[in-house]
Design brief:
Elements (H helix, E strand, L loop, with lengths): L13 E4 L5 H6 L6 E5 L9 H12 L2 E4 L13 H14 L4 E4 L2 E4 L2 E7 L5 H18 L4 E3 L14 H12 L2 E5 H11 L3 H6 L6 E6 L2 E4 L2 E4 L7 H14 L3 E4 L8 H22 L1
Parallel strand pairs: 1-2, 1-12, 2-3, 3-4, 4-7, 7-8, 8-9, 9-12
Antiparallel strand pairs: 5-6, 10-11
Helix pairs in contact: 4-5, 8-9
Length: 282
């Protein structure tokens, strides 16, 4: 379903990123998991076990699709074949929404297998907005774009990261997947205020939160998604709930994946933190 001002996308509650390690446990004991986010590229295949598993989850949970290869900021042409496969998967899965990252992942046909930050300039902004419009036309729906963590910045930047993200969302009429951990990581690495970041994001555009862990790498924080969520990120999550209200929230874990019960405990903690604020706002 596409979102309009009068018919916003639903709030799905609290979910997890679907990982192979938890396939059987989630089907047997879904517990407090209300929805699942799948990595789109893992299921853009002609058949086999991945799609057989996904069919089972599709019958049990609301699903959203999250990609890592759209490369919306690249100067390479958009990959029409990739978009066709993405559309076909969405047509079958019927996700609540589709997301990817506000970044570029390669140039001249070379995939760097990383999420590279953009120069926050008016030229880059116009480039991204035009490409988002074309992607949304192909998919027939608005997409969500996620802020990425970064470790370098561009000397010719004309906008802050949050101004750039907000402008893309407004001009392209797309939505935002706000990664709370990535804000914390980038704020530490670049010395900006994470609260200023939250304040600069239009509340009506925020459809989803990501929560994750990171590692210390010398003077930098490194976004690894392989560790528990730290207290500073939990506190920033609280500020995000105050700012944006009830938003679909999920936990990402891509490495050092623990037993499902451990992630469910983090999910319960997110609920417990947010509940008083949401009740006060009701």
């Amino acid at each position: 379903m596409n979102a309009t001002p009068d018919h916003p996308l639903p709030c799905l509650g609290y979910g997890l990123g679907l990982r192979v390690d938890h396939y059987e446990a989630l089907l047997e004991r879904p517990g407090n998991v209300e929805w699942l986010e799948i990595v789109s590229e893992n299921y853009m295949v002609p058949g086999g076990r991945p799609l057989a598993w996904l069919e089972r989850f599709r019958q049990r949970f609301p699903l959203v699709m999250h990609g890592v290869s759209l490369s919306i900021g690249s100067t390479d042409p958009l990959d029409d074949g990739y978009l066709a496969r993405l559309w076909a998967l969405a047509h079958w899965v019927e996700p609540a929404w589709i997301s990817d990252h506000l970044c570029w992942t390669g140039v001249q046909g070379v995939n760097l297998h990383d999420l590279m930050p953009l120069p926050y300039t008016e030229e880059a902004l116009a480039h991204v907005v035009e490409r988002v419009g074309r992607v949304q036309d192909v998919l027939g729906r608005r997409i969500l774009l996620e802020n990425v963590s970064s470790y370098i910045s561009f000397a010719d930047a004309q906008l802050t990261e949050w101004q750039f993200l907000a402008a893309v969302a407004e001009r392209a009429d797309c939505l935002i997947l706000l990664d709370i951990n990535n804000i914390h990581v980038s704020a530490h690495n670049h010395g900006f205020s994470p609260l200023a970041y939250l304040d600069g994001i239009p509340a009506a555009r925020v459809q989803q939160f990501h929560l994750a862990g990171h590692e210390q790498g010398g003077q930098l924080l490194i976004d690894t998604h392989d560790a528990p969520i730290v207290d500073d990120v939990w506190q920033l999550y609280l500020e995000a709930v105050r700012r944006f209200g009830r938003v679909s929230t999920m936990i990402e874990r891509d490495g050092h994946i623990p037993p499902l019960a451990e992630l469910m405990a983090e999910l319960d903690y997110a609920r417990q933190l947010a509940l008083p604020l949401l009740q006060d706002a009701a």
